[in-house]
């Protein structure tokens, strides 16, 4: 179990940084430019476009997997690998998005400033060995903090809310309701991640307006004069093999773009090199598409 947790938790030291501001970004391309993607291939599903720029990006990367981007205005999905994008994986810390909604709804936290106290016991990461507010726990991807909140909610309420939120296929019982997102048989695909985030953005989830506002504020990773990026990373180690996530969406003026990246390291890729790739490759892809 410690080995599994080590890989899952290591992500916080590399990718779960505090939100930051950036002021220098590429401008959004003209709408007609999207029709001139080099060597684009439209798949059988009219809204799924196999994008050559994403294929090239992933081909040269020390990781394999799928970058899935959804243009909300054009109702089109772009990816390098749609087969991978329809394959389920453990959600890992991306489950902290719905788990935050659950905590706010059942009252285990009052708001994003609620203090979560450290019990003084040694944790896998030093940055977790302190009292922190709920918002910090989200951005530092504090697994013990969210496990504590799940225990306070209880198995019955966790089941009820996971069913209400319709987030992938989560599998757990009385022995695993505080960790089913990092170990076990729970699965969610990149397509399902985006579908959930769209319902969240459109306020179609069964949550209060207050919860909606707090959670969306918590999710902000970057905010500039040009855009707002809301996102969450995730890392698991199923069967001894790392699998990483970066999911979220970008609001840019009146335009909206969702993304879900899921990656495995290529053979020989060191863990420390693989872990940052989820964010790095996604950000490159978003810039290539003129979104950032």
Class inferred from helices and paired strands: alpha+beta
Mean model confidence by pLDDT: 89
Q: State the CATH class.
A: Alpha Beta
Strand content: 15-25%
What is the CATH-assigned architecture? Answer: 3-Layer(aba) Sandwich
Radius of gyration: 18 Å
Task: Pick out the low-confidence regions.
Answer: 1-44
**How much helix is in the residues?**
25-40%
**How many individual domains?**
1
Strand order of the largest sheet: 1-2-4-3-10-9-8-7
Which keywords apply here?
disordered N terminus; globular; Beta-lactamase; 11 helices; single chain; alpha+beta; about 290 residues; 10 strands; two-stranded antiparallel sheet
Topology of helices and strands:
Elements (H helix, E strand, L loop, with lengths): L1 H13 L26 E2 L5 E3 L1 H8 L3 E9 L4 E4 L2 H4 L10 H11 L8 E2 L15 E2 H6 L3 H11 L1 H11 L24 H12 L7 H10 L1 E4 L4 E9 L6 E10 L2 E11 L5 H4 L2 H12 L4
Parallel strand pairs: 2-4
Antiparallel strand pairs: 1-2, 3-4, 3-10, 5-6, 7-8, 8-9, 9-10
Helix pairs in contact: 2-11, 4-6
């Amino acid at each position: 179990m410690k080995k599994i947790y080590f890989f899952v938790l290591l992500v916080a030291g590399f990718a779960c940084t505090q939100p930051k501001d950036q002021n220098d970004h590429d401008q959004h391309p003209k709408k007609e430019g999207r029709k001139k993607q080099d060597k684009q291939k439209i798949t059988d599903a009219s809204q799924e476009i196999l994008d050559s720029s994403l294929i090239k990006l992933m081909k040269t990367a020390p990781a394999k997997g799928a970058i899935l981007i959804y243009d909300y205005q054009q109702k089109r999905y772009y990816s390098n690998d749609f087969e991978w994008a329809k394959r389920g994986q453990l959600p890992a810390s991306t489950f902290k998005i719905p788990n935050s909604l659950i905590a706010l709804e059942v009252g285990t936290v009052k708001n994003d400033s609620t203090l979560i106290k450290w019990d003084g016991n040694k944790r896998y990461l030093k940055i977790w060995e302190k009292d922190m507010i709920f918002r910090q726990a989200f951005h530092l991807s504090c697994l013990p903090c969210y496990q504590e909140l799940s225990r306070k909610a209880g198995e019955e309420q966790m089941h009820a809310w996971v069913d209400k939120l319709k987030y992938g296929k989560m599998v757990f019982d009385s022995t695993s309701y505080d960790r089913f997102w990092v170990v076990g048989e729970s699965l969610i695909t990149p397509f399902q991640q985006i579908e959930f985030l769209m319902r969240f953005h459109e306020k179609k989830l069964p949550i209060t307006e207050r919860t909606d506002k707090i959670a969306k504020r918590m999710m902000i990773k970057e905010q500039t004069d040009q855009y707002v990026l809301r996102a969450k990373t995730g890392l698991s180690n199923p069967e001894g093999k790392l699998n990483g996530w970066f999911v979220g969406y970008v609001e840019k003026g009146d335009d909206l773009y969702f993304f879900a990246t899921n990656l495995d390291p290529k053979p020989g890729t060191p863990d420390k090199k693989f872990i940052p790739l989820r964010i790095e490759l996604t950000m490159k892809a978003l810039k290539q598409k003129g979104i950032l």
